[in-house]
Amino acid sequence: MFEPGPTTDTTEVRKGFAAGPQELQEPPWWRSGVIYQIYPRSFKDSNGDGVDDLGDIAEKLGYLEWLEVDAAWIGPICPSPMADFGYDISDYEDVHPMFGTLEEFDEILETAHERSIRVLLDFVPNHTSS
Q1: Any idea where the Glycosyl hydrolase family 13 catalytic domain is (predicted)?
Q2: Which class for 31: exposed (0-12), middle (13-18), buried (19 or more C-beta within 10 A)?
Q3: CATH class of 29-121
């Protein structure tokens, strides 16, 4: 049986075992964060056309902050022929006109970040359309 002496280095003996208390690490924010899903076609229709627009999302960010939401997950807003309600994307670098403009999306990002809300977008790489 091994018994360390006064000058024996026990590093080799402890390999594979915790040499001391393990440091607790914070889990990634998304493991315990509150994520609020926004489906742009039905979130809030303020102009009566049957479809939400980005301005409506920006308008409700204060409410999401009040709810202590960590992130807003926004469904597809990119241009699409709408055969799959926006999941058949034809242009990944723009916003579908029915939802608004890139400038309005930039406003959502800026306002959300001011309120410490992250913004997640549905990214649909396997359902492209022409």
Answers
A1: 37-129
A2: exposed
A3: alpha beta
H or E segment to which residue 35 belongs = strand 35-38
Give dist(CA 43, CA 51) in Å, integer.
8
Give the pLDDT score at 37: 94
Q: Domain map of the chain by residue range?
A: 29-121
Taking the CA atoms of 52, 55, 118 and 125 in sequence, report the sign of the dihedral they define. positive
Q: How many CB atoms lie within 10 A of CB 27?
A: 9
Does residue 72 have a pLDDT over 70?
yes
Does the CA dihedral 116-100-89-86 come out positive or negative? positive
Cβ-count burial of 62 within 10 angstroms (0-12 exposed, 13-18 middle, 19+ buried)? exposed
How many CB atoms are closer than 10 A to CB 87?
Answer: 16
